[in-house]
Recover the amino acids of this structure.
């Protein structure tokens, strides 16, 4: 479980557009690097507790996996409606 709900007020210049865990380090956001590190130790499933600008996370990871996996499958896993809106409650 990774907590991703903060506004990142100390990074205000960047976080007005992106939530703090989505701030890029190289070509990928911070949360991607965290997940990659855990994956190196065998963790394969993650729960991201989303809050501030949660759509940014959903859009990023759907786009990231679109080339490798079936987009509809990920929409079902994320609880997305056919219109692209998330049905998960925060």
């Amino acid at each position: 479980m990774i907590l991703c709900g903060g506004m990142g007020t100390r990074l205000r210049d960047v976080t007005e557009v992106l939530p703090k865990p989505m701030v890029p380090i190289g070509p990928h956001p911070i949360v991607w690097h965290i997940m990659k590190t855990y994956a190196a130790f065998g963790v394969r499933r993650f729960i991201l507790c989303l809050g501030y600008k949660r759509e940014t996370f959903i859009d990023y990871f759907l786009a990231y996996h679109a080339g490798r996996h079936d987009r509809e499958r990920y929409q079902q896993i994320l609880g997305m409606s056919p219109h692209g809106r998330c049905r998960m409650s925060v």
User: Anything to note?
Assistant: Residues 83-90 have pLDDT under 50 and may be disordered. DSSP finds four helices and four strands in the chain. Residues 2-78 form one domain. The chain has one domain: 2-78.
